[in-house]
Model the fold of this input.
Amino acid sequence: MRKCKIIKKHRLIKFLIALILVFGAILTYYYLRVAPLVTNIVIENTRMKVSEAIDDMTDRQLQNTNYEDFVIVRYDNEGKMTFFQVNSINVDLFARKVTALIREEMSKFENDGINIPIGTVSGVPFLSDLGPEITLNILNLGVVDADFTSEFISAGVNQTIHRLYMKIIVNMKIILPGYSLSFDNSSTVIICESVIVGDVPFGDIQISSGT
Done:
């Protein structure tokens, strides 16, 4: 009887050791193969979605705007520029509208999740893109911020091109079981552009606006 108990105990120990080794192998495979692969897929899809959202929402807001909405320019009776200033109030308001729309679009993306074939998740190359898709709700959208830069470029004799750029920065975090990664995605678009005839009274103007 005692010998039987010893044998059972040894078998249980072997089983536990085997179970630990299998579990360790699975974890190792997950962290070294599956998690980085899924993370890359999520980052690629997210960057594409964010870039599309930035372009679409910016274009939507720009439809009813013009250069004078963002830049204050005054001339004297002879047509000579006497005053030039970026309208920081309108620029900030524009940024708030665009970033709010981007947040809405990204919230939809978070709720919809990302569909990835099971074969891809397996980490086996020849099974990539095979099998039914699973939905991963693993994206956490952080801060959406906007920075602006005003640029002047010489365009010939007595002419200057002025461009106002907006750079949208979106902070994101990918959350997987036991694994997470934070990263930023940014895109720069031209908000307005105009050719100024005559001398520009001020040098390069750089402004920033946070939302």
Summary: The chain has a mean pLDDT of 76. The two ends are 76 Å apart (CA to CA). The chain has four helices and seven strands.
